[in-house]
Amino acid sequence: MTQTTFTPRAFSGIKPSGGLTLGNYLGAIKRWVAMQDDGMETVYCVVDMHAITVWQDPAELRDATREVAAGMLASGIDPARSILFNQARVAEHAELAWIFNCVARVGWMNRMTQFKDKAGKNAEKASLGLYAYPALMAADILLYHGTHVPVGEDQKQHVELTRDIAAKFNHDYKVDFFPLTEPVIEGPGMRVMNLRDGSKKMSKSGDSDMERINMLDDADTIAKKFRKARTDPEPLPEAPADLADRPEAKNLIDIYAALADTGAEAVLAEFGGEGWGRFKPALADLAVDKLAPISTEMRRLLDDPAEIDRTLAAGADRARAIAAPVLARTYDIVGLLRD
Ligand code: TYM
Prior knowledge:
By secondary structure, this protein is mainly α. About 50% of the residues lie in helices and about 5% in strands. The chain has two domains: about 10-185 and about 305-335, Rossmann fold (3-Layer(aba) Sandwich); about 210-300, Tyrosyl-Transfer RNA Synthetase. It has helices spanning about 20-35, 50, 60-75, 90-100, 105-110, 115-120, 130-140, 155-170, 220-225, 245-260, 265-270, 275-300, 305-335; strands at about 10-15, 40-45, 80-85, 150, 180-185. Strands 1-2-3 form a three-stranded parallel sheet. Strands 4-5 form a two-stranded parallel ribbon. Helix 10 (about 245-260) crosses helix 11 (about 265-270). The protein binds ligand 1.
């Protein structure tokens, strides 16, 4: 079989299962914006159908979908240069997901650590959708023949599963139809941790609001959260290697580095050897500096939800133009008859 060369195309998504966090921004959106200049097509999606794998109040889901879209736009995703839409508007995602449910193996799904974390001890009560979620994620990516997937570290296993699904599909049907997708996981913002417990990731749905920075937090709240962020009693070290067993310290330094577009080394060159008394206010100032213009723009956009809906609908039309022929060809390959 000859090896097909796939046009480079980035695909990524965010679940509207709550408001956006600093983790979403640094681990995903900030890099999506930069990728618009990397000379490849960029397709970004508010993955509302993923959100309902756990219960969502319908009115809150609608609001969160618009809030996530507003966050992407306010951060610099340009709907003229990128395709920006919400998943439910392009039914092909669900259709391809069904086919991938029939390609993926139960044993593969059983290894997904995120399902184990989310379902917890009560896995019997988890939705079937939560279990099948990685096959829908593979469909999201492969429907666009996505070659590059910029995500935070927590999504790495799902992108690897996407490769496994593509490889098995290609092998079983003796085609070279789906690309083997590369995760793009780079920089100090890949793993933003909880501000109260450096062993857990910062997430939209943690118990306490003090453990995360929300993109819509005001300046005082951001300053307070960083001031109260857990640290250890040692001063900041001189070198990144000395952060290895200091997760809370490492997290704050990585957040600073990611916001400042630099590395931990440069941050420690400035603050190493000092206590937290100067660093924490400097971090809060930097965060407010970077996030305030985004939250101001988000609020402005959210004042006109109909305009956000129009942007998402226009993006969905462009998405469908790519997705529909890929799905049609997939049905053909599989032997499903339709007009
Ligand atoms: P979600 O909605 O949990 O997160 C969206 C993006 O934000 C990144 N992220 C983080 N990065 C660094 N530190 C954190 N604390 C942090 N929290 C979240 C995530 O890695 C992700 O990149 N399954 C996906 C959504 C999805 C998707 C896709 C992604 C559905 N289909 C196709 C890529 C391609 C999810 O739940 O992300």
